[in-house]
């Protein structure tokens, strides 16, 4: 059975509890570093301390592999092969086009109808180039385009690991992260 995160729950300010399933032993990675290696544990508490980039809303991305998977599969969350674009809609728009620039023209990837949901989310196809442009174009009921939101994405190699220290307490199953 492959590694699968089954729960990520906020348990306090900057603190998150993760649970997972799979076939032990597990290797768990956070921020580009292996924080637990060959562990039989199926849960972990991540507590950010003095971390300026830690979100109080979103849990930090952890990854893992179990004994049935190749450890080379780690690092997906550090540089995923796709872009997730989220934008706020306006009820005065009828629909939105997500477009990609191919070097000569803008090509429509998908169209999303305005549904009053407020926020819209688009996940790009797997990246094939190192730099590319996306844009969101709003359209009104008559089909007139509004001002597009244009974004350029750069595909870089993995950044150098941050200088963090990790302390794991097996008794409490708590992982503490400090800026070194």
Write up what this structure looks like:
The protein has 180 residues and is mainly β. The chain folds into two domains: 4-79 and 160-179, no CATH class; 84-154, Immunoglobulin-like (Sandwich), CATH 2.60.40. It contains no helices and 14 strands. Strand 13 and strand 14 (174-179) form a beta hairpin. It starts with a strand and ends with a strand.
On the 0 to 100 scale, the average pLDDT is 78
Question: How many E-type strands?
Answer: 14
Number of helices: 0
Q: Residue share in helices?
A: under 10%
Low-confidence segments, ≥5 residues, pLDDT <50? Answer: none
Task: List the domain count as a whole number.
Answer: 2
Dominant shape: elongated
**Beta strand %:** over 45%
Rounded radius of gyration (Å) = 20 Å
Q: Within the largest sheet, what's the order of strands?
A: 1-2-5-14-13
Largest sheet, if any? Answer: 5 strands, mixed
The structural class is: mainly beta
The SSE string, one letter per element, is EEEEEEEEEEEEEE
Distance between the termini: 36 Å
Summarize, please.
With 180 residues, the chain is mainly beta.
Helices, strands, pairings?
Layout lengths: L3 E9 L2 E7 L4 E5 L2 E7 L3 E7 L12 E4 L18 E5 L6 E7 L4 E8 L5 E5 L7 E9 L9 E6 L9 E6 L4 E6 L1
Parallel strand pairs: 5-14
Antiparallel strand pairs: 1-2, 2-5, 3-4, 3-6, 7-10, 8-9, 8-11, 11-12, 13-14
């Amino acid at each position: 059975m492959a590694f699968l995160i089954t729960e990520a729950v906020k348990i306090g300010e900057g603190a998150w509890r993760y649970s997972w399933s799979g076939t032990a032993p597990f290797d768990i990675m956070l921020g580009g570093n292996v924080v637990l290696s060959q562990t039989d544990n199926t849960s972990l508490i991540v507590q950010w301390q003095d971390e300026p980039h830690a979100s109080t809303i979103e849990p930090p991305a952890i990854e893992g592999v179990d004994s049935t998977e190749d450890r080379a599969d780690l690092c997906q969350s550090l540089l995923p092969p796709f872009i997730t674009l989220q934008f706020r809609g306006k009820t005065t728009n009828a629909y939105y086009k997500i477009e990609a620039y191919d070097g000569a023209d803008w090509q429509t990837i998908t169209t999303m109808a305005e549904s009053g949901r407020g926020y819209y989310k688009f996940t790009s196809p797997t990246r094939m180039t190192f730099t590319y442009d996306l844009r969101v174009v709003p359209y009104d009921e008559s089909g007139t385009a509004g001002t597009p939101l244009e974004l350029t994405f750069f595909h870089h190699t993995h950044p150098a690991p941050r200088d963090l220290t990790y302390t794991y307490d097996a008794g409490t199953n708590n992982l503490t992260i400090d800026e070194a």
